[in-house]
Amino acid sequence: MSRTLNRTLVRALPDSAATEALGAQLAPLLRRQSGGMIWLEGELGAGKTTLARALLRALGVQGAVRSPTYTLVEPYELEGGLRILHLDLYRLAEPEELYGLGVLDDAPPAAWWLVEWPQRGQGVLPAPDLHLRLASDGEGRRAELELPAEWSAVLEPAKGHSAL
Prior knowledge:
Blueprint: E1 7-13, H1 16-31, E2 36-41, H2 48-58, E3 73-77, E4 83-88, E5 112-116, E6 130-137, E7 140-147, H3 149-155
Parallel strand pairs: 2-5, 2-6, 4-5
Antiparallel strand pairs: 1-7, 3-4, 6-7
């Protein structure tokens, strides 16, 4: 159910609060459909987990939002039947190891997947509905989002307002 990623948006993220704000801003997109694939790419410390945690909080996760660094998968059941799997594939040696995680039964559109280190699962992972790359940019970070054009209005600032 992947969409055509025909729009690219770039955001300056001067601090972790801006990264968290971007994560929260993505929440309405996930409420529009029951599932999909979000790839979160960036080097160690780029802010992938910070962004995912803010997104999950904005969707209503109340308890601990743990990094899936060691568990590889953290599932979340939300109000309205929304299911989210937060995956961290950094520790995968081969993409085929995804089959052993038991998550493919919950593949989109049955659930939303937030995937850190998606390049480690290439060839097995479904194509993304949103591809977000985080990178260092001077003192802060920069986010590059590849997304469907119809989603860009949710993330673009209104006229007269500044971007994140």
